[in-house]
Amino acid sequence: MLMHRRSFLECFLAAAFVLSLIAGPQAWALGPKGDAFFGYSRTGSDAFYPGTGGLNGWEGALHLHLKPLLGVEGDVAHYGLGSNSVVPRTTTYLLGPRVTVGALGMKLFAHGLIGGEHSSNSYGVSGNAFTYAFGGGVDLPLAPFFRWRFLVDGINAPDQSPSESTHARFTTGLVFHF
What we know:
Helices cover about 15% and strands about 55% of the residues.
């Protein structure tokens, strides 16, 4: 059974490679279809719970063009990495529209995302909440198909976030445009 799975996986990977060699140039010739992002993210102090300070973490996003200038974006982020066990680990999952314009090799964009967040800590305290983020950023060219992103959002989980908290997140990292 293990040998059968391994040979299937090898055949699948070989077929995917051959297909990418054949179809890849035609897909690239049609122009960018979207982008995939992964990078560092930091929230403002008390963004999700009181007394937590700013949280460090990672963020990943996938953007697909639907029409010129308009697309849809999915975003997942996880915060609390490197923190002590009392600080909640928070994961956000967001989806929404994005408007993108390009000038001088840069891509400027704005988005409005809605979704949820899940937080928990080592004491067994956990919770889920509705979350939204509105903001924008810029993708600066690095190399063909690669850009560097700077993004600022206002992010809020109204049922969890204290009103006096800093409802902001800053994100930076590598973008692959396809």
